[in-house]
Amino acid sequence: MNNQPPSVPLHDTFTAGLLAWLVPGLGHIYQGRTAKGVLFFVTLMGTFLWGMYLGEWKVVYWAWDERKPVVEGLCRLGMGLSSLPSIVQSFRDDGRGLPLIGRFQAAPSAAELQELNARLSRTWHIAQIYTMIASLLNVLVILDAQSGPSELAFARRREPTEEPALA
Amino acid sequence: MTPFVWAQAVHADLVYVYLLPLVAVVSVVYSATRHEDWPLIWGRASRLAVMILIFMAVMLAVLWGIHLMWL
Q1: Is residue A155 over pLDDT 90?
Q2: Of A59, A97, A112, B34, which is most buried with the most CB atoms under 10 A?
Q3: Residue A162: pLDDT above 60?
Q4: What is the ipTM of this complex?
Q5: Farthest-apart Cα atoms in chain A, separation
Q6: Contact A47 B30 (CB under 8 A)
């Protein structure tokens, strides 16, 4: 029985990592690991969107004032394009929103946040956790796109070098 | 138990339902980033999901015990 882990075509690792950050699974699809790419896309986007739905599509936002969600915001950076509108919206918080996406992922007002917290209660926090965990898991996916599955990366590290040591 | 209290208790229990999809996603994604072989991915993901659920059940029991004894 062959116990060797299968080889993985990583292609250009920077491009794969960047694509994986932008859209979960896209880096794997670029590498030809389509099934894994689809798995990551469905699971992570599903979790992120379900979290957004539970938070009435207002749970993902960024603001530079006292509404700033520091921990959640930093975690959500791992999700790439899915959370980028919140950053862009934070620079243009004039109440009108952006072309095409309108007020999507714009920061709610302090009063609206208070109302959402009070009304949704635990569901608001569950929504935050869903979006944060999906984003943090995408960091693992980016690493997988860049250096392959960790069993393979560790196996490569254990292999003795074939090049003769320099005198 | 009045219907209102009963409804509140049922809602409190339903919150744990949200845990199950999260455990499934964490297990599958973590295993898929560790392995490339599909049977191995599913096998490790199932094992990890069971381990997470057992760990959380034990923690729940410990916290519940502390709550009953000291709080």
Answers
A1: no
A2: A59
A3: no
A4: 0.85
A5: 71
A6: no
